[in-house]
Amino acid sequence: MSLAKAIATGAVLLLGSLLGSAFAGVSAALATGKPEPWQIGLQKPSTPLMERVTDFHTLVLIIITLITLLVTVLMIWVMIRYRAKRNPNPSSVTHNTLVEVVWTVVPVLILVIIAVPSFRLLYYSDKAPPLSEAAKKAGEKYFYLKVTGHQWYWSYVYDGPQGGRFRFESRIACRTKADCDKASKEVGRPLIRLLDTDNAVVLPAGATVRVQVTSADVIHSWAMPSGGAKVDAVPGRLNEMWVRFDKPGWYYGQCSELCGADHAFMPISVQVVSKADYQKWLAAAWQKAKKEDVGWSIVEEPKKTSMLETKTTKR
Ligand SMILES: [Cu+2]
To answer: What's 193-250 look like in SS3?
Structure first.
């Protein structure tokens, strides 16, 4: 990479972060995780996981910038100091043990410096942090969201309000600008083309959500840039990751594994609401599933506790 390119990259990154913060100010009312026009950097983190991913990205960016600068300076120095005109008789040096040891050991050290936080982050994303004793005593449980990829939409399975489970399908809300304008009027909020869905994933703010992902046909990927989520949906396998959105708002993602003709048209929209609003939505959603509205169904009826049973079995 040339020096000019390195400087240009630096300037673009700086401009990107400035623009990013300017746009963040515009949509401060409700937290949103979505791409912005002319965005260059990562989306603003909306989960603790994405905060760490962003920090790691910054660390690696600093390291690669330093390496790029060092290599550029070395090359310029070599080109000027050892040019043919100035050295009519070329040097016959072929080995230098010290230099060779240094250029092997230093890159190894750099890789180790990158590997330690990288692996830590990998394990952090893999398993939801354990609930604290206080949270357990307060009766808090993990929130499970089961996600299934289909050609070409997502379906979600939730625990019902009184046990049992229900399922709904989530399909793209609108594909063209004209459709989106029309649909926005019907829904009463501006829908984002290619990102909004007819049935959003609704999650309570602050809940630790274990997202379990699988597929019904080909490989898809449930990905949400602002949440740091990207997990493959593989038929016959159950992959897991976790998210925790603390602020109510809208968060968007897309299928990120090329899965066929409509791969670009199976977005993910997540609406994070307060715990009270979530309970209201859950009750309404259960009724919708009960009525078997288009795309909604009950997967498992709530278990009835018989007089003989002393303990209800948990799923
Ligand atoms: Cu897909």
So the answer is: CCCCECCCEEEECCCCEEEEEEECCCCEEEEEHHHCEEEEECECCCEEEEECCCCCEE
